[in-house]
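Weekly modeling sync, notes
Attendees: S.R. (lead), two postdocs, one rotation student

Agenda item 3: backlog of single-chain predictions. S.R. asked that every request posted to the team notebook include the full sequence so nobody has to chase files. The rotation student volunteered to paste the first one in as an example of the format we agreed on. Action items at the bottom.

Example entry:
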Amino acid sequence: MYVIVILAMIAGFLALRLYSVLGKRTGHEQEPALRPAEERAKVTIVQPRPVTGMAGDSVRLADGLIAPGGEAGVRALIAADRNFDVPQFVEGAKSAYKMVLEAFWRGDRQELEWLCDTDVLASFEEAIAAREAEGHILDNRLVRIEKVQIVDAGVTGRMAEISLRFEADIAAVTRDKDGHVVAGSLTDAVGTNDIWTFTRDLRSTDPNWKLSETDEAA
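Predicted structure, as returned to the notebook:
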């Protein structure tokens, strides 16, 4: 019961990018085009495999991707799972952030079910139902992700958890059933700061990370 997400690019040799993730917050809303079923089938959050000959400290090489308060937790995670790679995880998280927001904005329950845990899914479905009851359609746009940084991490038993701060610009518009704008503007992007937490069972054969919670950053 954790929101899926976090993609992984298998070390620099594989350009294949897989996406996924979700969270509990329902502050932003949007509606981009649906992906083909075959493309969505590829979306999965996999752990990168270590590249032969790549020595060194993954935390040290992360260069700004980890906040000071999160470094100890990341080291503990790497000690528990040597396959974990900070830069690849962060890249996957960025893709997951976009994917989850867009699924929520367009009200894609099927994709959200695939991305979220039970509690998060219920929260999103409630917000989508309320929106639909009012006859509202979201026409949001994720303009850019300015910064992503791991702010906390740790391992409890077999469960690994990572929290990331996302700083992004979002243009948000709400339309009525006739397409008329009732709130927001696509010309004025608003800065947002979110904390998304992803979780994974390190002993599971399933390589997917799930977002167990999202919140607004202080």
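Discussion: group reviewed the output briefly. The first strand starts at residue 3 and ends at 4.
Action items: rotation student to repeat for the remaining queue; S.R. to check formatting next week.
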